[in-house]
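Supplementary Text 2. Reproducibility record for the structural model of the 134-residue chain.

All settings were left at their defaults, and a single model was retained for analysis rather than an ensemble. We include the record here because the model underlies the residue-level annotations in Supplementary Table 4.
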Amino acid sequence: MTARMKEKDRRAIEADCARLIALYANLNDAARWDDVAALYAEDGVMVRPTAPDAPTVGRAAILAAFKARPPRTTRHVCSNVVIHVESADEARGESAMLLFTGAAEPLVGSFHDRFVRTADGWRFAERRGSLLFT
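Retained model, structure tokens:
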């Protein structure tokens, strides 16, 4: 956080970025792929926890990747969200993730995010998932 940034501004950025994390989980569980992809910057990067070496780059490619998935019922639970404000236009964050998919065992992992302020508000510049254990 820059020395000139006011505490209320820092807290507002933290809240906006934490809201993106929650929206991502809820929209993903509702299979609202257009809305999920819209949470990314145009040149955003998505790295799924199940494919850490295969980044998907660009909002259009991210949308296509979600639409290519077979239908499934999921529930993402995100917690331990910590946002670090780097400037008025950039932040990064970390959160824990628990994914329930019905028949399969739950997946436990985390996300490391970079956020950027765009003309449309805060968006994911990069969302990098990883699995800790299942």
